[in-house]
Amino acid sequence: MELDLTWLLWGLPLAFALGWLASRLDLRQWRMESRQTPKAYFRGLNHLLNEQQDQAIDAFIEAVQGDPDTAELHFALGNLFRRRGDYDRAVRVHEHLLARADIGRKDRDRAQHALALDFLKAGLLDRAESALHKLEGSAYEGEALMALLSIAERSRDWPQAQILAQRLEDTHQGSFTPRLAHYLCEEAELAMSQGDAAEAQRLLNKAVERAPQMVRGWMALSALKAQQGDTKGAFDTLLQLVRHAPQGFPLAARPIADLSIATGRQQEAIALLNEAQAHGPSLDITEALATLSGSATAARRHYLSHLEREPSLVAATQWLAGETLSDPAAQKRVQAALEHAAAPLKRYRCAACGFEARQHFWHCPGCQSWDSYPARRVEEL
Predict the structure, then answer these.
(1) Which domain covers residue 101, as residue numbers?
(2) Which pTM value belongs to this model?
(3) Residue 350 labelled as part of a binding site
(4) Which of 59, 74, 194, 231 satisfies CB 3.0 to 4.6 Å to 44 for a cystine?
(5) Is residue 46 part of a domain?
(6) Could you give the number of structural domains in the chain?
(7) Average pLDDT along the chain
(8) What is the tens place of the pLDDT at every residue in 283-296?
(9) Is 367 annotated as a binding residue?
């Protein structure tokens, strides 16, 4: 019996035509879906550029629903939630990414880092710390160590902060010597509050040995010696400050003047202060010289000398305080107005965030930066 192959001649072209038609239908469907996602995505970008975060979030949610497998859209959505302060939703997005089995190690580490930032921004320090520890050995290890260091500082866990700062320095993430010295000073303050002056002095000696260019260690060590009655040692410590950290001279000017009176070394202090003043006028140095001048008239001459070199409302107010006007009542009101206007100029200002304060801070309470306060007042900047 001969096999009839006629049906093959008709069947093969028909199968080819049906397959081609099916592929065209699938391609058309794919194109329709792919058009929808970019539209939502670009709409979200447009809202971001216009700083419309709520509308951008809605657009990215639409894009994610259209293409749930796109990790980049999830990252963008999670970061937007965090920036808006919606930390719960940011955490859910990044935890969803971590739960997926189809993302690579790089994206997994990125999601873990983003999750840690969510917890950190939300103030959940224990959960942030746990998430950051999981980044050890990843490309985000350096950033994780910096975040852990920030947590240790906020928690005032200075021994742990020292360990982390030393690790960062050992891995060439920058120089952390000044911070390590600050941590020793913080521990010394704690020891002093507990009545352990010997331990405080040991820590401060270690701080100035580690970072002799740092002002705080010398200032704290001098104050400790003065508190213990060793005024000569306190004065000599400030002389060490002048040699090793001259940028901090304005902060040390008044203590130098006070200690010189206690030790009978006024002439030595006056010579030191005049030499510093010759290099650049400073309100604190002028006030220290006025303190050592011995008379109100001589003190006013120092303020006048300051005004000759540099205009200063603070110095002018101090000079006018010694003047006698024909109308005492008017002079009192004028003096009060000048002191009120000059008060903000006596403040210190953080160079990192602009936070102003009456006292000098080693650690900015606004932005948490170290050594961001110059030794000079606002009027002198």
Answers:
(1) 69-154
(2) 0.75
(3) yes
(4) 59
(5) no
(6) 3
(7) 81
(8) 999 899 988 887 87
(9) yes
